[in-house]
Amino acid sequence: MKVRISENFLNVRLQENEIIALGNGEVLEVKLFFPGASFLFFRLLLEKQDVKLKASFKNGIVEISMSETEWKAWQQAGEIGVEYVQEGGEKEIRILAEKDLKKRRKQ
User: Fold this and answer.
1) pTM for this one?
2) For position 77, what pLDDT does the model report?
3) Integer Cα distance of 27 and 97 in angstroms
């Protein structure tokens, strides 16, 4: 999983095997460790409840989640990505989960 951040935009790009693993209930993580035992984790997971793509931050962990229903609809539609604008906080956050097409072409 690749994570890209710019001002109020959070993008996760997934390889095909990661998309399959996510659908099988695995939690995807990317970890960035800093000197002094500090860290920043990015976690992507599916939820049983019917929620839109959303993000939260707590204790050094950015958690991005979407419902299983939304994940299935994304896969069945054959779309490259799914995007949602999350309201709340000081500013809205645009969240995008997308398939990594570069990795697909190499196969």
Assistant:
1) 0.85
2) 85
3) 14
